[in-house]
Specification:
alpha/beta; Serine Threonine Protein Phosphatase 5, Tetratricopeptide repeat; Rossmann fold; 2 domains; 8-stranded mixed sheet; 8 strands
Length: 407
């Protein structure tokens, strides 16, 4: 290690952590039952609702490591939860491992009668998709379903689990319609929304008509909303969504962060996975390290921004490992090794499985004459290597011995 320059060592570590299979695929294993059924999607709970006067199945998926920590986690509420839980949990875990989003509790709300629960008004006789002249007689139950969410389900989740106040609502098609209805009916209930291919054709685009009053009368609306739709979606979806977001464009409230995009050529159902992924990415996209911090770095300012990140999204929130690496690289180029140490200490806490962070941190400790801390950091790396079977114990032990002789 001594024969390499700090810059060369950094590049080697970036390659090792981000690209090398033995490190890139270090991940927590998914447990199995005794009969070898793979776990990981969550646990079903039967919620007895007084508001709905029925038993409602709910799927709760806890983030990896939940039982081992005392941390609090934001909650993602997913409508049509049974049909969307597989791809949603998989996407959340992938993005969490990459540091692109914080760990989340996922609550999948199973649909029993989505035409009833997710529609804000009763369907008329000329409703698109209805049969004969009857319309959809049970429709219009969204106000009641929203009461169920606000007065029963959310309080239940927040008492039973360690939740962070940040809440997200995600819905597709009629679920997207309900999400938009919720945004305008009870905007305080959720901090962010992922709206996928919403059925805004409902009752002659009544939600768009309501939006003209809602957004004009709300000067400040501190929300983040992703409006996504597949580029191959058909009648009643794409143009209707465009007309809705046009209203937002004309009367955008202060602090209202939003994005409307058409993704690929996917049709109505096939787009869900992509929209879930892109929606989550957008909701947490502001977590990039500010360029002003890079140009005028201070330990206090850096740690303050990290604290703000954790305050907003929970104690386990972190930035992508590459972001920390890039900041360290720029600080080393400027000769600010002590600042780089501060960043690497935070990064190694955020990514305890990445041994390359500890190796580089130990090298900087040695470079700045802090050999005792370098030895302790290498020893920490040995334990990490043992735990995750990375096979680097002997090399790290050689570094410990070398530093002891140096002392």
């Amino acid at each position: 290690m001594k024969s390499m320059s700090i810059k060369q060592l950094l590049l080697a570590i970036i390659a090792m952590v981000c690209c090398h299979p033995s490190n890139a695929q270090v991940a927590h294993k998914i447990g199995m039952t005794k009969d070898r059924q793979l776990l990981g999607l969550g646990t079903q709970h039967i919620f007895k609702s007084t508001v709905l006067q029925e038993e409602r199945p709910i799927i709760i998926s806890l983030p990896i490591g939940y039982e081992e920590t005392g941390a609090h986690y934001p909650v993602l509420y997913v409508l049509d939860g049974l049909q969307n839980i597989k791809h949603t949990v998989g996407t959340v875990e992938l993005l969490t491992e990459s540091g692109l989003i914080p760990p989340l509790i996922v609550v999948g709300i199973e649909s029993l009668d989505r035409n009833r629960d997710l529609t804000p008004s009763n369907a008329g006789q000329d409703l698109h998709g209805s049969t004969g002249n009857a319309g959809i007689p049970q429709s219009g139950g969204a106000p009641r379903f929203l009461t169920f969410l606000s007065e029963e389900l959310i309080p239940y989740v927040e008492v039973k689990y360690r939740t962070h106040p940040y809440r997200i609502l995600e819905g597709h098609s009629l679920g997207g319609l309900f999400s938009i209805y919720t945004l305008m009916e009870k905007p305080h209930l959720f901090d962010a929304f992922i709206v996928e291919a919403p059925a805004l054709w409902w009752n002659k685009e009544e939600m768009t008509a309501k939006a003209k009053t809602f957004f004009k009368s709300n000067d400040n609306l501190d929300k983040t909303v992703y409006f996504g739709i597949g580029g191959g979606d058909g009648w009643g979806m794409r143009q209707e969504l465009t007309r809705y977001v046009d209203v937002i464009g004309q009367h955008t409230p202060n602090n209202f962060k939003w994005l409307h995009e058409e993704v690929g050529d996917e049709g109505h159902m096939a787009s869900r996975l992509l929209l879930n992924y892109r929606g989550l990415r957008f909701l947490f996209s502001e977590r990039k390290i500010n360029e002003d911090l890079i140009d005028d770095f201070s330990d206090v300012a850096f740690l303050k921004t990290e604290g703000q990140l954790q305050t907003k999204y929970g104690e386990k929130a972190r930035r992508p490992a590459e972001d920390y690496f890039n900041l360290v690289s720029k600080l080393v180029d400027k000769g600010n090794d002590l600042g780089a140490i501060t960043v690497l200490k935070r990064a190694s806490e955020a990514y305890p499985m990445y041994i390359g962070l500890l190796t580089y941190l130990a090298g900087l400790y040695e470079k700045t004459g802090q050999n005792d801390k370098a030895i302790a950091t290498y020893r920490n790396g040995i334990e990490v290597s043992k735990k995750y079977k990375l096979g680097q114990e002997d090399d790290l032990l050689l570094e410990v011995r070398r530093l002891r002789q140096k002392n």
